[in-house]
Amino acid sequence: MEILVQVDHLSKSYGNKVALKDVCLTIPTGKIIGLLGKNGSGKSTLIKLINGLLRKDAGTIKVSGYEPGVETKRLISYLPERTYLDRSQSVQQILTFFQDFYPDFNLEKAKRLIQDLGLDLHMKISSMSKGMQEKLQLILVMSRNAKLYILDEPLGGVDPSTRDYILDTILTNFSEDASILISTHLIFDVERILDDVIFVDQGVIRGYEEADRLRTEQGCSIDTYFRRTF
Fold it and tell me: ABC transporter domain spans which residues (predicted)?
């Protein structure tokens, strides 16, 4: 199994606040992995470091052998926690931008998924609900032919039916030669699609487990185990 991400002894602080402390982990290809922890546990910091959006204090990060930078941006498709779409643009304009910006963007796939949603290509982002915007952003991210998909709190602030759509979209568009890293504190909603789970607490990796084995050994859901343990 190919190693996609290698993180060794990674640390990051904001002033006196330690966000990550001596983090080591390996992400292989062909996995959907949950990065699980409470708000403020260090999940978003780790994701931003892998994406090259923050500077580390110590340690190393390699994505397919590259340090975060120009090369890794071609390999990673990233869904940030906050909406980034230009509200003045239409769905069609956003698609055109992604097609121009990302050589690996599959326009036909994106249009097919958008049609499944019943969205009008001429619809302005400003007229869409938060749930619709969340769905559109996910479609844009999953329509790239990337090696690593990083989704930061993709279920935050959307209704249960939208959550189901998002999870099903992730599953049906998953490629075995890629991996998906999903950061969330909504463990109950996402655990059904996870192969592996990484537990983060106070900037430290507290466990890296195979999801099915953890459920069998603990005799409970991952959500219950997390609440009981952390």
Answer: 5-227
